Amino acid sequence: MARERGLIRPYSFLLIQVNRMADALLVFATMLGSVAWWQEVSADALWLSLLSVLIFALFAESSHLYRSWRVAALHTELSMIWRSWFATVLVVVFVLYLLGDSYQIHKMAVVAWLVIAPVLVGGTRVLVRLVLRVTRSAGRNFRTAAIVGATPAGRRIAERIVRNRWMGIRLIGYFDERRPGRGRELVEGPVPIVGGMADLRQRAEGGELDIVYVALPMRAETRIKGLIEELADGMVLVYYVADFEVFDLLRAQWETLGEIPVLRVIDSPFHGFNSFAKRVQDIGLASILLLMCTLPMLAIAAAVRLTSPGPAIYRQVRHGLDGVEFTIYKFRTMRAEDAQAGFKQATRADPRVTRVGRFLRRTSLDELPQLINVLQGRMSLVGPRPHPLDLNEQHRRLVKRFFLRHKVRPGITGWAQVNGYRGETESLEKMQRRLEHDLEYINNWSFWLDLRILLMTVARVWKDGGAY
């Protein structure tokens, strides 16, 4: 049974090395193959192939691509491959640019290689995952795990393992000394409590366990330390599941301060490449949209001016990135004297809203001038909607973690808005739900999520009655 359970485990280190060599071979072979298709293979092609292998290897190693991916989703591994490859492409293209005409490589050969190589490298990962899934379905190559502590953190680990059977982990249950009705409550499901610490040690010593997840609360430091010392004499892998959710983290991530591990508990997702890519995305799309909407915006401005006295553009100071104030631009939708009065959220059938303004609000066309804010770098296409200063001041002391939404640039549209939390926030509960969606966006940001929100905005803006 133990041999079937760990069919591949004894060779895991060897397989990682094979992975490295296979990736290098694919990068090298696809370059030579692409060159051979378009021209005669030359010394230049050989040197460029070797350089590409080296560059990709460096980026792959720095991103920790070559490690065990048993408990990570396929899309996470593929995403890391594409990031390493994108960085490789930038360096290779830059080198070719510097060399100019002195390097005789057909441009189409380079383009073909840039497309084919990552597809093949990623394809091998997909194939390996399929083979492992078949192997695990046959009852081989799985690992047996146990959780110490029937706690909320333990339940989250259990639910993740049970829900993702592709990991190849069989969970036998919780080990906990406590009994129902004594002290803190024991969590329920998705696996039973099968014993206490003595039972855990017996199973670990008997070779029945491969992995132990310690999910005890951080205040149980002495018990955790003693348990880990006892398990250190065996062959099991031991993981400590720190219950950091009590801190309400935002984009939590482990880092090192010199040699000291530290946990970053509150931060923005937009650092380094992510920040650069997000900004490029905003500038590119905002420029295109401005060009497309120039004539409609001129027509809207004329309609606003002709139907009510006052300026076409309404300016208001709001909180932006890190709480810094900026001036937001919108088409004026209220009578000029009402727009300049003290803050008051618009309500249904609000008498201050003009006839043209009501149409602009319902269709969100009054937001179009904010494309200028995007180009200025004060806003993004997608992000938490910026609130008027008075609205922020009303809620920052009533809603926990309210200002965390300002860890990113505010957006013209956002995850809260496409999920129905748009327009008037007439209750504290609605503002709380809007904040929850904003923080969910920050914690789970990706380019695909931005694209999804933009498409959902277009689809829902006409039928959404949340703004008036």
How does this structure look, described?
It is a single chain. The chain folds into three domains: 2-137, no CATH class; 143-247, 3-Layer(aba) Sandwich (Rossmann fold); 273-460, no CATH class. The strands form four sheets. A five-stranded parallel beta sheet has the order 3-2-1-4-5, sandwiched between helices. It has a two-stranded antiparallel ribbon with strand order 6-7. The protein has a two-stranded antiparallel sheet with strand order 8-9. It has helices at residues 2-5, 12-38, 43-62, 74-99, 107-137, 152-163, 197-205, 221-231, 272-307, 336-339, 355-363, 370-376, 389-395, 415-418, 428-443, 447-460; strands at 143-148, 169-175, 193-195, 211-214, 237-240, 253-257, 260-264, 313-319, 325-331, 380-382, 411-413. The chain is flat and about 85 Å long. The protein contains 16 helices and eleven strands. With 468 residues, it is of the alpha/beta class.
